[in-house]
From TrEMBL, chain A:
Protein name as catalogued: Vacuolar protein sorting-associated protein 9A, variant 2
Record-annotated VPS9 domain positions: 16-160
Region described as Disordered: spans on this chain: 227-255
InterPro entries: VPS9, Vps9-like, VPS9_dom_sf
Source species, domain of life: Eukaryota
Composition bias, Low complexity: 230-240
TrEMBL record, chain B:
NCBIfam families assigned to the protein according to its UniProt record, in alphabetical order: small_GTP
Keywords linked to the UniProt accession: Nucleotide-binding
Ranges for region Disordered: 1-26
Biased composition (Basic and acidic residues): 10-20
Species of origin: Stylosanthes scabra
High-level lineage: Eukaryota, Viridiplantae, Streptophyta, Embryophyta, Tracheophyta
Stored Gene3D superfamilies: P-loop containing nucleotide triphosphate hydrolases
Pfam families per the UniProt record, alphabetical: Ras
SMART domains, per database record: RAB, RAS, RHO
PANTHER family from the UniProt entry: PTHR47978
Gene: RABF1_2
Protein name: Ras- protein rabf1
Length: 302, 200
């Protein structure tokens, strides 16, 4: 199973999309969700235990076998269970059942935001030996599955919270995450830069096309003329050789056009590659090509 | 739900295996059953289980296992043993949509209400309907009116419970987790009603 891990874990793009969606939603929730929104009694609000449970849950991605992943879930749930039991023993609280357990697990899951939660659960469900995914293990596994389902479907009505306030908080969280993305997310910045460069290249391509069309016309005129000359006169091999190797017989402008066009042709006509486009642009407008190089440099740097 | 729905083939297999075990499976003398507890929060689901498993109500006693999942084995007169694996569910309204994840593959569902709370009784009826719609067809259903010791505060008549249970082919009992009244009887009766291997 460990050897097959890379092919079996989060293998489909849908899974990674779901993972990202869940993780993003949890990120937003993290900014404002408080234990009281899930009606967790004050008695059970024990930061130390919660942190420990979060740590156990986050370990899930560090293991490759379904058994070990399941163990991480079990350990996390045991920490929560101990917390509940201690609370019932120390205070004269009614014995805690699932009514207390599930809200705490949901809260811990949100705080931990375990990476690739959906893929991890799916992986366990698919590949843990079914005879072993029973009884207590199955119970705690089901609890985490339902905690995730709760988070996925979470809206104002699922929390003890005003609907308007919930929307407000979600909006604020989204804004905040966008700002941080713009500010410090390097990958986001790189994406932006790439987009910018792409745009510039597109514009240059268009200009190159404009430049190319008269050139093509000139070229066809030139070929026509040449053919006419070739067919009308009896060509000596010397002249042909001279024509082939003889830039001296052509005007410098023509020569340049020739060069540009042959470069275009050898690259397969209209298919433009960013790099060659840049090279060709060097011949066109020096200023712009410098800009393009600078932009590319930036992309590489970031 | 991603995990549940994405693997229908496997789920149904698990489901089938659970049923075969509950119905006898390989070991006809030692049954293992998944029992799910449903009911509004505060009706005393976990107290019933604790009473059954630990034989005590006193919450100050040292309990070493989680209270949301417990298992207990009982021996019947015909020398078979039944191991109950008891799955507690969160009763709050906001988690109602998650219940199918828990009762999938369960052989027994115990629906609990509080005899002092008519709301919890209507909630119990909601659960019975849900189970009839989405539960396994062979599931054994039990309706339990808890907190029977608080008879001076009673708001749901015994007859209401009996009538409703009878109409829906359920087993009905009133219990008190506090005084331990009818707790063992509840689980013994469930064990008797479990589908048996064809031999017995």
């Amino acid at each position: 199973m460990t050897k097959l891990f890379s092919r079996t874990f989060a293998a489909s793009p849908e899974d990674s999309r779901t993972d990202n969606d869940i993780s993003e939603k949890i990120c937003l929730l993290q900014t404002f969700l408080k234990p009281e929104h899930l009606d967790i009694p004050a008695l059970l609000r024990n930061e130390a235990s919660w942190l420990l449970a979060q740590k156990e849950l986050r370990k899930i991605n560090g293991f490759k076998s379904p058994r070990e992943k399941l163990l991480c879930i079990m350990n996390c749930c045991r920490v929560i269970n101990n917390l509940l039991l201690n609370a019932t023993i120390s205070e004269n609280h009614v014995p805690a059942g699932a009514d207390d357990f599930l809200p705490v697990l949901i809260y811990v899951t949100i705080k931990a935001n375990p990476p690739q939660l959906h893929s991890n659960l799916k992986f366990i469900q698919l590949y843990r030996w079914q005879a072993k995914l029973v009884s207590e293990a199955a119970y705690y596994f089901t609890n985490l599955v339902s905690a995730m389902a709760f988070i996925v479907d979470l809206n104002a009505t699922s929390l003890s919270m005003d609907e308007e306030k919930f929307e407000e908080c979600m909006e604020a969280a989204k804004l905040m995450s966008q700002q941080t993305e713009a500010k410090c997310s390097s990958s986001g910045k790189m994406c932006d830069k790439t987009e910018e460069t792409k745009g510039q290249l597109g514009r240059m391509n268009a200009r190159l096309e404009q430049f190319n069309s008269p050139t093509t016309r000139h070229w066809s005129q030139y070929t026509e003329l040449r053919e006419r000359v070739t067919s009308s006169s009896t060509m000596s091999s010397v002249t042909t050789a001279g024509e082939r190797s003889g830039p001296s017989t052509r005007s410098p402008t023509r020569n340049k056009i020739c060069h540009v066009i042959s470069a275009g042709n050898s690259e397969g006509g209209n298919v433009m590659r960013p790099c060659s486009a840049r090279n060709r642009c060097t011949q066109l407008r020096k200023g712009e090509s410098v800009e393009a190089t600078a932009a590319e440099g930036k992309v590489r740097k970031s | 739900m991603g995990c549940g729905s994405s693997t229908p083939g496997r789920d149904s297999r698990q489901f089938g295996r659970d049923n075969s075990e509950n119905g006898g499976g390989q070991d006809a003398k030692n049954l293992r059953v998944k029992l799910v507890l449903l009911g509004d929060s505060g009706v005393g689901k976990s107290c019933i289980v604790l009473r059954f498993v630990r034989g005590q109500f006193d919450p100050t006693s040292k309990v070493t296992v989680g209270a949301s999942f417990l298992s207990q084995t009982i021996a019947l007169q015909d020398s078979t043993t039944v191991k109950f694996e008891i799955w507690d569910t969160a009763g709050q309204e906001r988690y109602a949509a998650l219940a199918p994840l828990y009762y999938r593959g369960a052989a027994v569902a115990v629906v609990v209400y509080d005899i002092t709370s008519p709301e919890s009784f209507s909630k119990a009826q909601y659960w019975v309907k849900e189970l009839q719609k989405h539960g396994s067809p062979e599931i054994v259903l039990a309706l339990v009116g808890n907190k029977a010791d608080l008879h001076e505060k009673r708001e749901v008549a015994v007859q209401d419970g009996i009538d409703y249970a009878e109409k829906n082919g359920m087993f009905f009992i009133e219990t008190s987790a506090k005084t331990a009244d009818n707790i063992n009887e509840l689980f013994e009766e469930i064990a008797k009603r479990l589908p048996r291997p064809s031999a017995s």
